[in-house]
Amino acid sequence: MISVNVNAVLKVGAENLMGFYNFAQIGVLPEPYCKFEYQRASDSSNLWWLGWWETAGLFGGMIEYWHYTGDGTFNQPIAAAILSQAGSGNDFMMPQAEGNDDQGWWALAAMTAAEYGFPSPAGAPSWISLAQNVMGQFQSRWDMTRCNGGTLNLGFVKIPLTRDRHEMENTARCRRISL
What we know:
- The protein is mainly alpha-helical.
- It folds into two domains: 6-140; 143-179, no CATH class.
- Helix content is 40%, strand content 8%.
- It has helices spanning 6-18, 52-69, 75-84, 100-116, 127-140; strands at 35-38, 47-50, 142-143, 150-152, 168-169.
- Strand 3 (142-143) and strand 4 (150-152) form a beta hairpin.
- Helix 2 runs antiparallel to helix 3.
């Protein structure tokens, strides 16, 4: 029988993942993992942030790593990185927040931190308040006038824009979008 120390194996994975992160530049993963790209080559004004939401997924996963292993090696940079993206409204409404889903990934990281009691720096907003603020943003964009309800997207071109420059998003998506 082979004996494996699961925590030791997980630590190697955590170190490899955090090896992508530039600790000197708090916030998001560096290029090429996070970078500005053009959504459509023909539209140079349609610049969007590739990987911002993926960075939130990484930090949320690292919170789970801490929770299940008890290894707090990366806790301080993870907390600093998440908080650096909270924005002035503590709702992850940063310039990179181009869609509800992007903003939602950061809220999920904050919710995970709240659920697991992840330590936060003194004076920082609570993890739960960050997640609640995002929910408030989502509720403010809820619209029942099209598609039997959904959230107004933030203007990011994921699918063709409607006349009033809003897109409806919800889990099921409308079969067709028309005005």
